[in-house]
Amino acid sequence: MRHVFTYVFLAILAATVLLSCVEDIDTNQFDDLSLTPTLEASLLYVEATEQLINLVDGNTVFNNNFNFDAFSTDVFAERVIEGTIVYVVENTTSKELEITVEFLDESETVLDTEVFSVEPAPTMVLQKEIFYGPAGRSIDIITNLSSIRVSAINRGDSDSTSSAPEPMVTLKSSGKFTVRVK
Asked: Cα separation of 156 and 146, whole Å?
């Protein structure tokens, strides 16, 4: 009799445990999941020394195209939501310069342009943020970007020299973009 009581008690206990812990499993949670990381990277770095600027014939210090297909790849272009590009320009030369950055598509059509008028040293570091996406310029500019053209024009003379130890002009840029992974 004691064994029967033990078996009945264990059966009731097992049924209670199994029935009390059962909850419907929500298998749709993955569908509701949204992953949107922010990716940040350096995009461009260009520099020219004052000595180079003084040696150039004419006033065009440099005019270069840089291939940049990273944004136009399907993995990025189809998933980017918004982004910011930050430019930083520093001039320790005795020259007044005009620097132009142009974003070009595959057929070299200009998609976007930024112009920086830089005073001779001593000047403050010039920083500029450009927003793309819902809060700024069209995100299509970024997704169709194939190359970047950077040009610099000397608006000053070609023989003065700065008293800085290593006078040069530098242009740096970085980008921060939010992409939808899922």
From this structure: 32
